[in-house]
Amino acid sequence: MTVIIFLIVLGILIFSHELGHFLAAKRAGVRVDEFGLGFPPRLIGWRRGGTLYSLNIIPFGGFVKIYGEDPEEVKTDSSSSVSLIAKSKWTQALILAAGIVFNLLLAWLLLTVALSTTGLPLSAEAVPTGYQIRNPQLTVVQVAPDSPAAKAGLKPGDVVVSLRAGAEAIAPTTAPEVQNFTANRADQEITIGFIQPAAKQKTFITERAVTPALGLTPGRAAIGLGLDVVGQLKLSLPRAIVAGGQMFAKLTFLTAQGLIKLVADLFRGEKQLLNQVVGPIGLASLVGTASNLGFGYLLFFIAVISINLALLNLLPLPALDGGRLLFLLIEAIKGSPIKPPAVHWLNLAGFAMLILLMIFVTYHDLQKFIF
């Protein structure tokens, strides 16, 4: 089921991106030869309005074949007026950037839908100004690997309701309460009570024994939980549009910050860089986890992926939209086109690098998520 959900999510993201290029090209009067979901070989195809619409076997991708992307194909063609390169540099830039814009718009739309339908699980600190969450609960957002909490079976999404050590017991409502309770109990057994919404057990309390350990957190004993107060934010459609926009702007800013740090770490040769990167297998695993936490959380997760996809495509690398925009800027500055063979080989090299990176990251995913 996780694989099916992942393919659906991937299809939505790709369709949105390519739809942006497609509509912008059509609007500008540029001929679109093919709009394909997935990569060939082709499964089915049908032609309408001069465009071939195709569904292809390899699901990890999609494309829009815009006439004139390759300048060589329009040299001797009498219909060159409907080619991409026949349009102004500004129009070409709009067509190239449209996929990125549509991924960003998709993220805003998904956040709005989540907020106005099922509601969205949010941290109390992440709620946009002027709104209030319902049913706030102390929720596990992270479990340290090989920690006492991980060995006890706690997972992200579980709700902590009680802690007991001998005759002392508390019903914590904040993370510091849990930290203070475990801080001085190294090697002393504690009973933790928690609810597992992801396991469809929204009222049944599971109790497990955990023993706080030193070394997880500097200066005190801990059980290895990252906790936050999480509640449900559900709004009317008009308010959801505004709140969704606020959340979208914050998520985009934070994602851009993270991407800049990732690129900086790459140039610094950080050894732990791969732990920050997830490939197709890891992404499928995370999509499965998100779907288990509820439809609203899944929509939120897809919105985050869509923002990441948009910003990654902005990178000025050959074979990405950002690289093509960079070529366009260079041509506008120098006043003449870059030689097609140079563009071809740069794009080919960029595509090869992306494929090698995907293979490398996939291998790392296999080690991290399966083996």
Structure description:
The chain has 371 residues and is an alpha+beta fold. It has two domains: 2-116 and 286-370, no CATH class; 134-233, PDZ domain (Pdz3 Domain). Helix content is 47%, strand content 25%. It is built from nine helices and eleven strands. The chain has helices at residues 2-27, 89-116, 148-151, 175-183, 237-268, 280-292, 295-313, 321-334, 340-370, and strands spanning 32-48, 51-66, 120-123, 134-143, 159-165, 168-170, 190-196, 201-210, 213-217, 220-222, 225-233. The strands form four sheets. The chain has a four-stranded antiparallel sheet. A three-stranded antiparallel sheet has the order 3-11-4. It has a two-stranded antiparallel ribbon with strand order 1-2. A hairpin with a 2-residue loop joins strand 5 and strand 6 (168-170). The longest helix has 32 residues, at 237-268. It is elongated, with a radius of gyration of 25 Å. The two termini are 20 Å apart.
